[in-house]
Amino acid sequence: MRLSGMLTAVDVHAGGEPGRVIVGGVLDVPGSTMFDKRVYLEQHADHLRRRMLREPRGYPGLCCNLILPPTRPEADAGFVIMEQTDYPPMSGSNTICVATVLLETGMLPMREPITELVLEAPAGLIAVRAAVANGKVQSVTFRNVPAFAVHLDVSLEVPRLGTLTVDIAYGGMFYVIADAAALGLRLVPSEGREIVRVGEMIKAAAREQFPVVHPDNVAVRGYSVAQLSGPAHSPDAAMRNAVVISTGAFDWDRPDTWTGVLDRSACGTGTCARMATLHARGQLALNQPFRHEGILGTVFIGCLVSETRVGPHPAVIPTLTGSAWITSISQYVLDAEDPFPEGFTVGDLWASS
Questions:
Q1: What's the pTM?
Q2: What is the model's pLDDT at position 4?
Q3: 139-178 burial, b if ≥16 CB within 10 A, otherwise e?
Q4: Residue 22 forms beta bridges with which residues?
Q5: Taking 70 as the threshold, does the pLDDT of residue 3 lie above it?
Q6: Closest to 61 (Cα-Cα) out of 11, 109, 106
Q7: Active site residues
Q8: Please, is 56 exposed, middle or buried when counting C-beta atoms within 10 Å of its C-beta (0-12, 13-18, 19+)?
């Protein structure tokens, strides 16, 4: 048996959202910034993403993170986020997973009761405060990049759904946010397939009618996520949301084809985007905790700590708190005779075969 390309990875989830973390097997990749490293991986080493996220090693709902040396002296570690169709500049649940893995595996020193560190994401530097007890990370709070509303209450024409009133906001990724009740949805797990169907249609329409580009980085553009928002189910939460992550290209000729998957958590960058829209409307003040439920009932706690600007947009600085749990530590290898070194997709589970 001839094996090569061994990767060591820690499987972990934050509020139900799986975020595999590669901790060994890749020393570094070219790039003067973490965003440059993200671009290099996307353009020259995408086989790594495909290998770890597609079958037989991955599955549609999985995210993956690659730990890399930081490029900034202020940072303790860097990471690049990999999802099924792209490399997001930032992800809340993945940040929580990465911080938990770095500390609980001993890659970075853990200090009780609070461990402070700085992570370098493609979107920028992320300050982290981890609450620690008895060798376990109890929770992770991070200071996100600025979040801002791009459009509030705009009309979006969605074939087969009609005219929807939506918000468009950035929280580390661009989100189109629609009201779940207007679509007849309560945001419960049994509605998962319908949520994905309408979420993909909403995203496709938003791409055509409201293109988005980040003012500070023109390479950050477009939507890979949609958020349906509704009232909380728990009395101690403020709102509930379900975020749809694309697993393939949407086809208007086959709108009922399954092309996405639900974020299992309350979605970190989605929570930050939602808080930005609420603040823009005067409905969420600074330093007011915002408990946001996901479709499983797990909660992330957001808080807006200051105001700023991003290009022409009034913006806010959010923090987000959540917890993650390690489920396994594995080594992934390539057999020289494996017919699927970069994995595969099949149309029974994936957007395309």
A1: 0.96
A2: 75
A3: bbbbbbbbbbbbbeeeebebeebeebebbbbbbbbbbbbb
A4: 9, 66
A5: no
A6: 11
A7: 91
A8: exposed
* Cis preceding-peptide flag for 215 (omega within 30 of 0): no
**Token duo for residue 250:** 């949407």
The burial of 254, by beta-carbon neighbours within 10 Å (0-12 exposed, 13-18 middle, 19 or more buried), is given as exposed
Q: And the tokens for 188?
A: 């419960």
| Domains observed in the chain | 3-143+325-335 (3.10.310.10), 147-321 (3.10.310.10)
Task: Yes or no: say if 161 and 183 are a contact pair by the CB < 8 Å rule.
Answer: yes
CB 42 within 8 A of CB 50: no
Could you tell me if 243 and 296 are in contact, meaning their C-beta atoms sit under 8 angstroms apart?
no
**Residue 353 identity:** S
d(CA 325, CA 244): 22
Specify the residue for token string 């928002």: 229
Task: Please state, in angstroms and rounded to a whole number, the distance separating the CA atoms of residues 351 and 246.
Answer: 9
Phi (first) and psi of residue 12, to 5 degrees: -155, 155
Q: What is the pLDDT of residues 147-192, one digit of tens each?
A: 999 999 999 999 999 999 999 999 999 999 999 999 999 999 999 9
Q: Judging by beta carbons within 10 Å of its beta carbon (0-12, 13-18, 19+), is residue 207 exposed, middle or buried?
A: middle
> How far is it, in rounded angstroms, from Cα 56 to Cα 79?
24
The contacts of residue 155 (CB under 8 Å, 6+ apart) are 163, 164, 165
Residue 47: phi and psi, rounded to 5, are -60, -30
Kindly report the length of the chain.
353
Question: ∠ at Cα 260 (168, 338), nearest 5°?
Answer: 135
User: Cα–Cα distance between 99 and 201 in angstroms, integer?
Assistant: 34
pLDDT given for residue 353 in this prediction: 45
Nearest to 308 by CA among 124, 121, 122: 124
Sign of CA dihedral 108, 114, 119, 121: positive
pLDDT tens-digit series, residues 199-258: 999 999 999 999 999 999 999 999 989 999 999 999 999 999 999 998 887 777 776 666
Dist. CA 292–CA 234, nearest whole Å? 10
Token pair of 187 as six digits: 């945001």
- What amino acid is encoded at 76 in this protein? D
Under DSSP, is residue 232 helix (H, G, I), strand (E, B) or coil?
coil
